[in-house]
From TrEMBL:
<keyword id="KW-0949">S-adenosyl-L-methionine</keyword>
<feature type="domain" description="DNA methylase N-4/N-6">
    <location>
        <begin position="39"/>
        <end position="267"/>
    </location>
</feature>
<dbReference type="InterPro" id="IPR029063">
    <property type="entry name" value="SAM-dependent_MTases_sf"/>
</dbReference>
<protein>
    <recommendedName>
        <fullName>Methyltransferase</fullName>
        <ecNumber>2.1.1.-</ecNumber>
    </recommendedName>
</protein>
<dbReference type="GO" id="GO:0009007">
    <property type="term" value="F:site-specific DNA-methyltransferase (adenine-specific) activity"/>
</dbReference>
<keyword id="KW-0808">Transferase</keyword>
<dbReference type="GO" id="GO:0008170">
    <property type="term" value="F:N-methyltransferase activity"/>
</dbReference>
<keyword id="KW-0238">DNA-binding</keyword>
<dbReference type="GO" id="GO:0032259">
    <property type="term" value="P:methylation"/>
</dbReference>
<keyword id="KW-0489">Methyltransferase</keyword>
<dbReference type="InterPro" id="IPR002941">
    <property type="entry name" value="DNA_methylase_N4/N6"/>
</dbReference>
<dbReference type="Pfam" id="PF01555">
    <property type="entry name" value="N6_N4_Mtase"/>
</dbReference>
<dbReference type="InterPro" id="IPR001091">
    <property type="entry name" value="RM_Methyltransferase"/>
</dbReference>
<dbReference type="GO" id="GO:0005737">
    <property type="term" value="C:cytoplasm"/>
</dbReference>
<dbReference type="InterPro" id="IPR017985">
    <property type="entry name" value="MeTrfase_CN4_CS"/>
</dbReference>
<keyword id="KW-0680">Restriction system</keyword>
<dbReference type="GO" id="GO:0015667">
    <property type="term" value="F:site-specific DNA-methyltransferase (cytosine-N4-specific) activity"/>
</dbReference>
Length: 281
């Protein structure tokens, strides 16, 4: 990496919560030290470089620096992934930087196969009824941005998926017998409607400007077919949402974030989830 602007790098601090490792530190520094071929599934949403107001990280690199940085992150992810691993990269552009996710994908094309391109729909209007939430874009020339990308990147494009486990039941049950399906389930396809919970305060969103709902990493891990014991990594874990999904599925997670406050939130969310499931037996 050559053109990356200076970002303060805190010293890494590592802790264990249940089956999971939380690391406060710089993603690149930590990734470089992880062993090759060691991770089954990476689910992450890095900064999008669209000027979000994170607690410490400044989301305003030049486009060139951002693309260099994310490409280097991609190289490290490819190195540490197992050959049959999956990398689910959640990213979006903004109205003023609409090309950025696509520019990044062109760079990552040299490293990964784009096995699936999933569109995460956060809000949709069906007829006149709106479902889900979106952040309104105040503009005469842009429409609201209601979706984000989930790029499913693999090393060779041949990772078998659990399409039915992540799938949905048939609406027309006659399809099951007519088309010889063994179970009442079909592939969900590449549009995932996963709305945010309704919240009224920033605190309910953990005072973080860019989280994803737990259902999003859950869907990725289910589609990959991650089994208990599988190693899950989120190098930009924020409030630890991917680790919550991993915990609920009996998987082992590692999460990295450079922000002490977000790591504290991740720790608290994970502890609460583990305590709740301990209490319920
Ligand atoms: C889009 S957010 C991830 C949010 C997460 N998916 C969640 O649900 O909470 C990106 C995160 O990357 C973190 N970050 C930015 N630069 C980083 C770096 N160099 N190393 C590690 N984390 C970094 C930010 O603090 C932020 O929490």
């Amino acid at each position: 990496m050559t053109s990356r602007e200076a970002v303060p790098k805190p010293r890494s601090r590592r802790e264990t919560i249940g089956r999971h490792t939380l690391i406060r530190g710089d993603a690149m520094n930590v990734l470089r030290r992880l062993p090759a071929d060691s991770v089954d599934v990476v689910v992450t949403s890095p900064p999008y470089n669209i000027g979000l107001a994170y607690q410490t990280y400044r989301d305003t690199l030049s486009e060139a620096a951002y693309l260099d940085w994310m490409t280097d992150i991609g190289r490290q992810v490819a190195r540490i992934m197992k050959p049959r691993g999956s990398f689910f990269l959640n990213i979006a552009g903004s109205s003023s930087a609409p090309w950025l996710p696509f520019e990044l994908m062109v760079r990552l094309r040299a490293i990964f196969v784009l096995q699936n391109h999933i569109t995460w729909i956060k809000s949709v209007a069906i007829a006149d009824v709106t479902h889900g939430h979106f952040k309104p874009v105040n503009s005469a020339r842009y429409v609201n941005r209601n979706h984000e990308h989930v790029f499913h990147l693999t090393l060779n494009g041949d990772v078998p998926l659990q399409r039915l486990a992540a799938g949905v039941p048939f609406t027309d049950k006659s399809n099951i017998a007519r088309r010889n399906h063994a179970v009442d389930r079909r592939c969900r396809g590449d549009t995932w409607f996963i709305p945010y919970e309704t919240v009224r305060t920033k605190q309910q969103k953990f005072s973080h400007p860019g989280t994803f709902p737990v259902a999003l990493p859950t869907a990725c891990l289910t589609l990959h077919g991650a089994r208990p014991g599988a190693a899950v990594l989120d190098p930009f874990m924020g409030t630890g949402t991917t680790l919550l999904a991993a915990e609920e599925m009996g998987l082992s997670g590692m999460g990295i974030d450079c922000d002490t406050g977000y790591v504290a939130t991740a720790r608290q969310r994970l502890r609460q989830l583990i305590d709740r499931s301990d209490r319920s037996g």
